[in-house]
UniProtKB/TrEMBL annotation:
<feature type="domain" description="EVE">
    <location>
        <begin position="6"/>
        <end position="154"/>
    </location>
</feature>
<dbReference type="InterPro" id="IPR052181">
    <property type="entry name" value="5hmC_binding"/>
</dbReference>
<dbReference type="InterPro" id="IPR015947">
    <property type="entry name" value="PUA-like_sf"/>
</dbReference>
<dbReference type="Pfam" id="PF01878">
    <property type="entry name" value="EVE"/>
</dbReference>
<dbReference type="InterPro" id="IPR002740">
    <property type="entry name" value="EVE_domain"/>
</dbReference>
<protein>
    <submittedName>
        <fullName>EVE domain-containing protein</fullName>
    </submittedName>
</protein>
<dbReference type="InterPro" id="IPR047197">
    <property type="entry name" value="THYN1-like_EVE"/>
</dbReference>
Amino acid sequence: MSARRRYWLMKSEPDTFSIDDLERVRTEPWNGVRNYQARNFMRDGMQVGDGVLFYHSNTEVPGIVGTATVASKAYPDETQFDSKSVYFDSKSTREEPRWFLVDVAFERKFSRTITLDEMKQHAARLGEDFALIRRGNRLSVLPVSAAQWKYLLSLE
DNA sequence: GCCAACGTTGGC
DNA sequence: GCCAACGTTGGC
């Protein structure tokens, strides 16, 4: 028995890893998340098959650029053990890994970007629990309700 | 490039 | 356990 499909939004800086990069490689380990809340969403909340809104942050026009799916259960982020990686964490051990990730698989690139600006205009409809447009929210992985997912896709 | 927001670290 | 200092995120 599997629980109902859940939905998420995951941010990536397109200069580092864009939706086009994901389309090219098809599946990517979502490494480098070093925020506990974001980690908890991946480790404790995500299941294979969940829907992901792929969001481009820190770019000229930030917004949702496509969809992906969660393609694995959570497992330890290998980069935390790599002393040469920028994501290296000297306090993490293989016995007790601190950071987890999931694999994310490309699904679809939108015909256009659903911009952050546009989402703000639809704030009333998206609701107060839509974390992306709550002031000051910097989480790079955040939950999206089924209603928000449906509504955001309808904007394309 | 600036800087507000805010999570994390570390001294006490 | 408080909280100032610091570092990072990410919109603008």
